[in-house]
Amino acid sequence: MRYISTRDKNCFVSPSQAILKGLADDGGLFVPEAIPSADFSAEDYLSLGYDEMASRLLYKLLPDLGLDSIRSCVSEGYGDKFDSSERVALEKVGERFFLELYHGPTCAFKDMALCVLPRLITASCALNGETRETVILTATSGDTGKAALAGFADVPGTKIIVFYPENGVSKVQKAQMQTQAGTNVYVCAIEGNFDDAQGGVKRAFEEIKTDEVILSSANSINVGRLAPQVAYYFYAYGRLLERGEIAYGDEVSFTVPTGNFGDIFAGWLAKQMGLPVARLRCASNENRVLTDFFETGTYDRRRELILTDSPSMDILVSSNLERLIFYASGMDDAFVRKAMKSLSEDGFYTVPEDVMAKIRADFDFGSADDSRAGEIIASCWNEYRYLMDTHTAVAAACSRPADVVLSTASAFKFAPAILEALGQLVPESGFDAMKALAICTGKSVPAALAGLEALPLLHRDVIIKDRITEYVKERI
Ligand SMILES: *Cc1c(COP(=O)(O)O)cnc(C)c1O
After folding, report:
1. Residue 354 lies in a domain
2. In this structure, are residues 342 and 7 in contact, taking their beta carbons and an 8 Å threshold?
3. Which of 391, 392, 398, 406 has the most ligand 1 atoms within 8 A of CB, as the residue to mutate?
């Protein structure tokens, strides 16, 4: 099994090398040359626990690491950091299902992958006789940063440097990152938005040529980040089967709140691996670059980024779409190379109609603004006493009856917007807002968030995006 670059399919590496490199040398993303099949029987869906199901799928995608090594990456990575050994929960709310992916240590779905990634990297180093330090560079729109910091903190042989947009993350997200302890962690704010941070980090990868450390990424461009996300689609299917909601082989549709296109691309991979999926619905907030792309076939980032109540989806360049276009175009690496060049130079590219037809056969799309999301938050609470966060609400607004809606964060991470949606007064401080939300809903603030207020602020650096390369060089 080989991984090839989306921009040059003759450039290939082993799965573990793809994890260590993060990005291909030509700037492309690594993808499996042939997508393996999961081969789960009805019995497998019903009997496999989350960790075992995830391990078997990871082994299909990353075979050179070996099943036993993957099993320990998964079980030690998730460990006792989750609310339950089930890792995720599937709740029926009216006619829909909510797949709650936020029961991990940082209360966001990013934990599903970022608890496992550091161990996949360590295992990949061992397999490749690699003794150099791994330095993780990451740009975050909020949740990735904290989940990555928590995953990598004090992991031997690694260092992590996280950049976030100064005014593009919630107060609680900022506090989560600024309070991160660990001798190997660095956190720095960027004057600008998420795309500035991501662009600066991509440039740092190109500009820093060193053999002394391995530079890698915890963004969803890393296959070690993407692969663990395939598991919860299969697991949700098993739970629907178990409860008699579907019969074995029935197709299920998923609605996914989308930013960088990583989560929903993992769903597409699950479908290619044999999961019976009808449609994957791509939900965007007011930054509807993807909605427009699915509608018109032109991906156009030439617009102002709008800061919304769902900041983890405030993105104009959805990096993982490159992977989908690679496959949908019949692995046309020359086309992908040209399209990505035109995206970075001219700000847009257009995909031919026959390729778009293939994409539209699998994907549906929609967008919802803050007020629409707020209405859904209020109506679900009033009707069903079900509390969801702002990102999940965007997806719920774009979903259809019987869909599985991916629920990506705890409502307490975005308490001010939730309080507003519920018609409550919004306290000035993010922490007071969490407490107010707990009082008005009768639910308790997750322990990982409740404890933040008492922690010291350890990271206060703020720089402009053009200094990212220099900042990194000074720390490796
Ligand atoms: C990251 C994130 C998303 C978007 O996921 P992508 O893989 O970037 O598409 C949605 N919701 C929340 C809460 C997130 O943290």
Report:
1. yes
2. no
3. 391
